[in-house]
Request: fold
Amino acid sequence: MLMFGRVIDIPRLQAWYADAELSYRYSKMTLAPTPWLPVLTELRNRVNTFCQAQFNAVLVNCYRDHKDSVGWHSDDEVELGKNPLIASLSFGATRDFQLKHKNGGESIKLSLQSGSLLVMGDKSQEYYQHALPKSRIEKSMRINLTFREIKK
Ligand SMILES: O=C(O)CCC(=O)C(=O)O
Ligand SMILES: [Fe+2]
Reply:
């Protein structure tokens, strides 16, 4: 990613799978879509049914160990539209997920276990930020899939 004019490594691995021609732009990066893998299509279909959604893309994050993380942010990119629905599936190591209101106050912590589905909707991106901090305890790999709908 580009930070203060420098190209630096993000503290995790990332891949973007989406229907053809749906790129994703954030933090001045453009992720070109990788064609769907059968297992991701299967998960997408199940999550679409469960959430009554039309997810057409998934951002895959791989946290290699406890030192990998994602900083405070909202998933509020314009291509997601207003009040986006985001469904987050976790696999592997249990990690803490944090949520806080943009106006301040305490953050809350959710322990995301393997196989769990976290759904963020309504104004959760407009009013809140979330993060996955580094862990002080050693952790094995965690893979997180955030299903999104890119509006055309
Ligand atoms: O790994 C997680 O649980 C969160 C990932 C996330 O916030 C994102 O990809 O936008
Ligand atoms: Fe996010």
